[in-house]
């Protein structure tokens, strides 16, 4: 049985500590003690200690929006994975569409980051998803197949089961509407079938596949009703405690 999980990344939208404090306090007040749903918040790096303190009690976990590909060394501007672990991070977002498009992150980079997160006992939340162009050219499935294999390949089976795949069609991010529930269910089923074919039914049934891309309080229920949708990854609507708590509660 896969536990439903709802997470939110604040990206760089929250741009002061004060704003971050207010938001985390609001979220904590409304859903901090929900037990039925696993929850996480991903703030920017410097906010992590503050978030960790605010979420010390309750059921909301936290993590980072990225991880360095390397362990330590001469990598100016990067953050060592061990420090993220020491700050209590449980989840690491990897390969978001913005990182792939704006920062040139490749599938190979994603692969390295997945391995490193698991090495430090943090759960990778790996974003996968076809672009608008992939969809138009009917190569969305090829894109997903490649991304899934790069993310998981070579991991020990028990480690592989811990990975969360976040299906985020690039064409549905930051839009007025999410992808349709039926469309999402079909894709999640396809992703699970790739995993089953490559690594077996046991792994395919264990891995959680969540959906992200314009999730809001009105489309939550329809999405999470789908058999292969194991939770949600929330963007804009995670920046408002009322929206986020409604999403968690209607999941
Ligand atoms: C995202 O960028 O990953 C995302 C899901 O954003 P939004 O919910 O705002 O579309």
TrEMBL record:
Homodimer. It comes from Geosporobacter ferrireducens. One of its GO terms (biological process) is gluconeogenesis. One of its GO terms (molecular function) is triose-phosphate isomerase activity. GO terms for cellular component: cytosol. Belongs to the triosephosphate isomerase family. This is Triosephosphate isomerase. Pfam families: TIM (PF00121).
């Amino acid at each position: 049985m896969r536990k439903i999980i709802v997470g939110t990344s604040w990206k760089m939208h929250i741009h002061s500590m004060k704003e971050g404090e207010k938001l985390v306090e609001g979220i904590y007040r409304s859903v901090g003690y929900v037990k039925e749903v696993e929850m996480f918040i991903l703030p920017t790096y410097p906010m992590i200690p503050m978030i960790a303190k605010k979420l010390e009690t309750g059921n909301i976990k936290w993590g980072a929006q990225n991880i360095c590909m390397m362990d330590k060394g001469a990598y100016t501007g990067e953050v060592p994975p061990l420090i993220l672990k020491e700050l209590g991070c449980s989840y690491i977002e990897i390969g978001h569409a913005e990182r792939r498009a704006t920062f040139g992150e490749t599938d190979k980079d994603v692969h390295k980051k997945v391995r490193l997160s698991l090495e430090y006992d943090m759960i990778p939340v790996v974003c996968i998803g076809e672009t608008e162009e992939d969809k138009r050219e009917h190569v969305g499935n090829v894109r997903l197949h490649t991304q899934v294999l790069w993310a998981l390949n070579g991991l020990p089976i028990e480690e592989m089961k811990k990975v969360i795949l976040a299906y985020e069609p690039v064409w549905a991010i930051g839009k007025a509407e999410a992808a349709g529930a039926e469309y999402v269910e079909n894709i999640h089923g396809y992703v699970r079938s790739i995993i089953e074919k490559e690594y077996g039914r046991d792994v395919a049934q264990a891995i959680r596949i969540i959906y992200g891309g314009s999730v809001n309080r009105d489309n939550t229920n329809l999405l999470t009703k789908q058999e292969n949708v194991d939770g949600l990854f929330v963007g804009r609507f995670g920046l408002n405690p009322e929206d986020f708590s409604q999403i968690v509660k209607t999941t």
